[in-house]
Amino acid sequence: MATFIVFTRESTQDQNELNIYLSKVGETLEGHPVKLHAGPRQVLEGPAPEFVAILEFPTTTAARKWYDGPAYQAMAQHRFKGATYRAVLVEGV
User: Fold this and answer.
1) Which of 13, 20, 84, 89 is the most buried (most CB within 10 A)?
2) Spatial separation of the C-alpha atoms in residues 65 and 42, rounded to whole Å
3) What is the three-state SS of the chain?
4) How many domains are there within the chain?
């Protein structure tokens, strides 16, 4: 069953740190069974996030293997310094 990780960037604090993250995060996805869904968005309710990305994995185990893995966790430190994000894992039904 598909599992999604939804990232929403609420606000940017340090563009340099965020640039490091954005330039290298794709490398952490190599070798993982993932599809990236992102594009134009329309805000229907609430405040607009700066950015939204949805990563689709075939299973929750595959999603956690990437997210909890050392490569992504090392890169995520730049995201934490660069911006305020929300990250939510959603299991498909």
Assistant:
1) 20
2) 31
3) CCEEEEEEEEEECCHHHHHHHHHHHHHHHCCCCCEEECCCCCCCCCCCCCEEEEEEECCHHHHHHHHHCHHHHHHHHHHHHHEEEEEEEEECC
4) 1
Query: What confidence tens digit (pLDDT) does each residue in 5-28 have?
Result: 999 999 999 999 999 999 999 999
Residue 84 burial (C-beta neighbours within 10 Å; 0-12, 13-18, 19+) = middle
* Tokens representing residue 68 in the block: 């909890």
CATH number, domain containing residue 11: 3.30.70.100
Tell me the CA distances in angstroms from 3 to 29, 37, 70, 78, 85, one per residue in order. Answer: 15, 13, 20, 24, 19
Q: Which residue has the tokens 């730049």?
A: 78
